[in-house]
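[job 4471] stage=fold_predict status=RUNNING
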Amino acid sequence: MPIAIQVSAFKFHPSPFLSVHQPSFDFVGALLYHWWMIHITEQASSHLRELAAEKNSPGLRLAVERGGCAGLQYVMTLGGPLAGDEVTERDGAIVAIDPGSTEHLEGCTIDYTDGLTGAGFRIINPKASRSCGCGTSFEPVGKV
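[job 4471] inference complete, writing structure tokens
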């Protein structure tokens, strides 16, 4: 059974190699957990820092809710983390993840694109079997 260690607003999950009897904190496990949880590309990090500074916001909060044309939809808002949120950061860009949404967002990548079809944050989610054309909603893998 994994052990979760709560430190301030951040949740760290030690690696399975950490002995339960070992009193030290597993920094490698914590780093691997947060790397595995969500990845922020350099372009997304850069744009998020600029946007947060412009809007005087600590960062981006990401959640998944029922809705959209594919069953579940991403909800992104500017703001700080709430109690229980998973928090990750890259080069000063902070992303808070709603605790009820982590099962749908594990292993995803947040990117920023600026092309002919529009500009905005894009979520590349390995747990999505399909997504709608606009990219804001998805159907989770394994849904029948």
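[job 4471] summary: The radius of gyration is 16 Å.
[job 4471] exit 0
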